[in-house]
Amino acid sequence: MPLWQALVFAGLATSAAAEGPLSVGPITARPGEAATGWIEVPDAADPGARIPVTVVNGARPGPVLALIAGTHGYEYTSVVALPRVRARLDPARMTGAVILVHMANPPAFYGRRIYYNADGKNLNRMYPGRADGTQTERIAAAITREVIDRATHVIDMHCGDGNESLRPYSYWQISGRADLDAAGKELALAFGLDHIVIDRDRPKDPAKSVYTSNTAVLRGKPAITVESGGMGGTDAASVDAQVAGALSVVRHLGIQDTPSVRVEKPLFVDRAEVLTAPATGVWSWAVEKSQSVAAGTLVGRVHDPFGTVLGEVRAPFGGEVLYVVATPPVTKGEPVAFVGHLTEQAPQ
Ligand SMILES: [Zn+2]
């Protein structure tokens, strides 16, 4: 058996449903109770972090759903949504548990940082993390150990970053393990966002899982990433979608009888491409989120500070703009847009 398979099966064995008290870091909730507190990431060569968490442990054992908000510091909709989700959960009526990570990356949130922490690293590229690493790596290690390893299902809640104008969608990753892939699809449908990006390209090595949700999947736990909102906003529709989606998954897993927003007619994104800046400079975008584009449609141009065109970006194929960077600064190689081709057919 390859090492990664052995680790996946070991992960399955340790992800049994909650029974008795449930502890996340120093926070312990007994059956039928909720508890709040902080996962402490100690200072080292650079500052640590205190990650705010609520553990809601149902009166009866069942699935353990982890909701992870605020991985990126300038993405606010999930951070605003989770207290509303918490208010709807009643541990006395619950079968299973919900772990709410209210803010996965406090240094980036309070620092108003887009993409990168002060150590230059992106939290959603550092998993499973390193306990002896820099700030971002230590945060990832703490979330892997204290949250993902305690959960049976994981939802990583994002939106467009502070510079990204985004239409809502979820990522359903195909791991190649049929049971996990089927369960992941059901999570995406249950969350209720009608555009579902099929992602086949995540790493397969649990020691280099890179992404939050991929860390869960490679440990045998169904997981999705969801995106609703962007541009540093907290508009009601984007936040409402995060609240409704999380509660709908709570229902889907049989944890509590909350309202369902399951999507009945999903559109699957069977081909998607992140378009990147051809040069460092001043970006002027030519499309809007949700806009349909044809192959060759101008997405935007990069100018130098004097106004001379340095390069342009065009759609590589026909589809829809899932997000577009809608502020001027761009650095060569960084994303400027995400284009997806839509189909009503789920892959077999
Ligand atoms: Zn994000």
Tell me what the structure shows:
The protein is of the alpha+beta class and 348 residues long. Helices cover 22% and strands 32% of the residues. The chain is built from 7 helices and 19 strands. The chain is globular. The N terminus is likely disordered. The chain binds zinc ion. Zinc ion binds next to loops.
Summarize the structure.
With 348 residues, the chain is an alpha+beta fold. It has helices at 3-14, 77-88, 106-110, 135-146, 178-191, 212-217, 236-252, and strands at 22-24, 27-29, 33-41, 49-57, 60-69, 95-101, 153-158, 164-166, 169-173, 195-199, 223-227, 267-276, 281-285, 292-293, 298-303, 309-314, 319-325, 329-330, 335-343.
Draw up the topology in text.
Layout: H1 3-14, E1 22-24, E2 27-29, E3 33-41, E4 49-57, E5 60-69, H2 77-88, E6 95-101, H3 106-110, H4 135-146, E7 153-158, E8 164-166, E9 169-173, H5 178-191, E10 195-199, H6 212-217, E11 223-227, H7 236-252, E12 267-276, E13 281-285, E14 292-293, E15 298-303, E16 309-314, E17 319-325, E18 329-330, E19 335-343
Parallel strand pairs: 5-6, 5-7, 7-11, 9-10, 10-12
Antiparallel strand pairs: 1-2, 3-4, 4-6, 8-17, 9-11, 12-19, 13-15, 13-18, 14-17, 15-16, 17-19
Helix pairs in contact: 2-7, 5-7
The structure holds zinc ion.
Zinc ion binds next to loops.
